[in-house]
TrEMBL record:
<dbReference type="GO" id="GO:0017111">
    <property type="term" value="F:ribonucleoside triphosphate phosphatase activity"/>
</dbReference>
<keyword id="KW-0547">Nucleotide-binding</keyword>
<dbReference type="Pfam" id="PF03266">
    <property type="entry name" value="NTPase_1"/>
</dbReference>
<keyword id="KW-0378">Hydrolase</keyword>
<protein>
    <submittedName>
        <fullName>Nucleoside-triphosphatase</fullName>
    </submittedName>
</protein>
<dbReference type="InterPro" id="IPR004948">
    <property type="entry name" value="Nuc-triphosphatase_THEP1"/>
</dbReference>
<keyword id="KW-0067">ATP-binding</keyword>
<dbReference type="GO" id="GO:0005524">
    <property type="term" value="F:ATP binding"/>
</dbReference>
<dbReference type="InterPro" id="IPR027417">
    <property type="entry name" value="P-loop_NTPase"/>
</dbReference>
Amino acid sequence: MKVFLTGRIQCGKSTCIKQLIEECSLAVCGFQTLPFYEQGIRLGFYMHALWENPYNDVRFSIQHPTYNEVIPQVFDQFGVAVLQHARQFLIEKKQQKPVLIVDEIGRLEQQEKAYLKLLQDSIAKAQNVLGVLKKCEVQYIQAIAAREDVQVFDLDVMSYDEVYDKVLALLKSR
């Protein structure tokens, strides 16, 4: 089962994944992309690894009025470390049918070659993947969406409840 959600900003993609993890008590590894705030103002985004470690939350972008500036090497260093840890977790917890969480894959990582290579390889090798694909025309995002073993649910086309129910059924049948 390799499922990705897509849709406009703030339509519930990450919320859906979070609720599915909780409802199914999934053994998970991977990461979440979260907004970085100071004094109530969004100043960028950070990667949150889904395991306890002393350097868990690493900021990878700086918010400007009209764009996000990427902090170089964060994906190629921390992102690679997160994916390497996730791959080991998937092997060690195989009996629990763990799920690789990749929330989200977007355009900000497009210059991070080592990360993108390991990300694509991890998706190919993992039995269970649940993630978010940014809705944009970026080659590696389109390549993931086009994989024969991947299902993509678009929250701009389907209702939140419909997507939730379909993915929940897939998770229970794996």
